[in-house]
Specification:
Elements: H1 11-17, H2 23-37
Protein name: Ste24 endopeptidase
Length: 38
């Protein structure tokens, strides 16, 4: 079975159609606090 989810989706499409943020958005959110402290 292949994973057919897109890695980079449109933010509006993802907000409307997905129940959770895509992996790329989750990883960016994890890195965000580190960048604020710099």
């Amino acid at each position: 079975e292949e994973n057919l989810s897109a890695m980079n989706t449109d933010p509006w499409y993802s907000a409307y159609h997905y129940s959770h943020p895509p992996l790329v958005e989750r990883l960016a959110a994890l890195d965000a606090p580190d960048k604020k402290e710099d």
